[in-house]
Write the structure tokens for this entry.
Amino acid sequence: MQLSTTGFDAVTRELTRIRKAQAPAIAKAVNDTAKFAKQLAIDEIYAKYGFKSKSYVEQHFSLSINPRTLTANISARYRPSSLTRFSTPKFRVGKRSQRVASGHVVSTIRNQPTWFKGAFTFIGKNGNQVMYSRRQGDTSWRTFKEAKAQGVKALYGPSVGHSFAYMREDLEAPIITHLRKAYGKQAR
């Protein structure tokens, strides 16, 4: 018994022709959608988390597009951000009407401030601004070598990568909608 496959070569050629005709449209749609997804993620992270500047969030995102496999990869840095990226100094009025430092107001989630009364900042060894906190009356350490010996660590907030990972599911629906619209425009 022999199976005859007449006509299948023509179907294969037609599918190949359709694929070649649609490949540029799909590639353009993936390219547009990847750029849209990156900007959407940056905007949503900046809106939710209390980063002082959008450029800080933007500089820690990377986008790579592979036109051969029609894939795009968006990644973000997972290194924790110094808490100084989310804080503003707080002052009180001291004797003789002088401004006296009274800690920092930290808002890691936008519009949800927390007052760290004993927080202070300084420039670390690598040139970054670092924040530490000490409770009122705590005189157990005066230098940072003593603090390190006692296990006191610098204060850090969420990283851009963790923020992105937390929001990833919420971003899927708008990205899919944009991909469908972008492909619809290109396929015409």
The beta strands are 61-66, 71-76, 81-82, 87-93, 99-106, 114-116, 119-123, 129-133, 156-157. DSSP finds four helices and nine strands in the chain. The CA atoms of residues 36 and 127 lie 34 Å apart. The helical segments are 8-48, 54-59, 144-150, 160-187.
